[in-house]
Amino acid sequence: MIHEPIVQLLTALALGLLIGLERGWHERMLRAGGRVAGIRTFALVAVSGQVSGMLGLLLTPWIPVATLLGLSTLLALGYRLNSDDDRDFGTTTVIAALLTFLLGLLVSIGESSLAVGAAVITTVLLHFKETLHDWIYGLSGEELRGILQLGLISAVLLPVLPNQTYGPWDALNPYEIWLMVVLITAISLAGYFAMRLTGPDKGVMITSAFGGVASSTATTLSLARMSQQMPMYRLLAGGILLASAIMYPRILLLVAVLNVELLQQLSIPLGGMSLASLATALWLWHNDEPHGNVDTSQMKQKPFQIGPALKFGLLLAVIMLAAEGILAQIGEQGLWIVSLVAGLTDVDAITLTLSRMAENGIRDRVAVVGITLAAISNTLVKGILAGMAGNWELLRPLIPGLGLSMAAGGLLLLV
């Protein structure tokens, strides 16, 4: 049996080699001795952190402090000597070396998993320097404001909200409601950036996949309006079905975050709906009209809008009140009426409500049926919206896919 100190030593060595490998590769074109620290130095720095941490536990905690100060002095001296060579050296390698020492120190106190995770994240950040810089240079002011606004509603507003219930039937929890607003907004923002990085010129199907992450209903409206100017109905209908196919796994993701015990039961009907929509979308894609790679610039959206986020929070509060009120007056079966009505406007709100209620009293089966009914009614609404914003030529290839998806959800719900 290998002793724990030996395992810690090998772990520190491995994470030092990992970070050092990236730094050595990044500075591989420099002359020998021209780099501040390479793969061997990083490995020794990590081992030094682990050994000094162990000595600190055995003798005195001042040992790792003194070692860190000495290492900082050596690295600063090396940085100074190399920068005198008329080359502009950044401080990234120096900071990475100090972090590597601290990671070795973490290993010595039994936090190996945290240290290894931090080492992997550090290596990824170091390696994708150019990619990150290019992304920052291409970031618009509006997109930066979107990121900052998300930080505002999540890191500033969320922590100060009370995490307790208020109102009739103790149905409203400000912290939980705003947490759901943050969750939905973050998913939408991620979908926006995924769409932006891929580029709308990649075609309707790719854009629909990312649009389905943000809002399958909004994507349906965008594609339906597009059909008025671009008579490519099979391709656009396939895009709507693909966005719907993405919506069902998104519901499962929300449920997994809130109440993982519902996931197994719910994955059967929603998984069937997703597969039915995806299969139909792919069939339409492979049998679409000529010139399938069309301009989708009409689908562009703002990265962050506080108005829709607040409306979603209000809708969630109303549905929570209605659900708890019906539960108190009618019983669990009345929640299915709420699910069908709520799914006509937004499937996320009722999903979040029922997932929360399943943790606090109602049977899991009631929540599963309710969420599935909301998904079915929301799928039906997509056909109505497509007909209103588009025309019959769009509905003709779309109706079979939507019908197959709803039938799959209803039948599998009975299993």
Would you list the SSEs in sequence order as H and E? HHHHHHHHHHHHHHHHH
What is the share of helical residues? over 70%
Computed Rg: 27 Å
Morphology call = elongated
- Tally of DSSP helical segments: 17
Q: Roughly what is the average pLDDT, rounded to an integer?
A: 77
Largest sheet: none
Uncertain segments of ≥5 residues (pLDDT<50)? 291-300
- By secondary-structure content and strand pairing, the structural class works out as mainly alpha
Query: What is the beta-strand fraction?
Result: under 5%
Question: How far from one another are the termini?
Answer: 50 Å
Domain module tally: 2
Number of E strands: 0
Report on this model:
The chain has helices at residues 4-26, 39-58, 62-83, 92-108, 112-127, 129-137, 141-160, 174-198, 204-214, 216-229, 233-258, 263-286, 306-329, 335-343, 347-359, 364-389, 392-413. It has 2 domains: 4-135, no CATH class; 140-413, no CATH class. By secondary structure, the protein is mostly helical. The chain is elongated, with a radius of gyration of 27 Å. 77% of the residues lie in helices and 0% in strands.
Question: How is this fold's topology laid out?
Answer:
Blueprint: H1 4-26, H2 39-58, H3 62-83, H4 92-108, H5 112-127, H6 129-137, H7 141-160, H8 174-198, H9 204-214, H10 216-229, H11 233-258, H12 263-286, H13 306-329, H14 335-343, H15 347-359, H16 364-389, H17 392-413
Helix pairs in contact: 1-2, 1-4, 1-5, 2-3, 2-4, 3-4, 4-5, 7-8, 8-9, 8-13, 9-10, 9-11, 10-11, 10-16, 11-12, 11-15, 11-17, 12-16, 12-17, 13-15, 14-15, 14-16, 15-16, 16-17
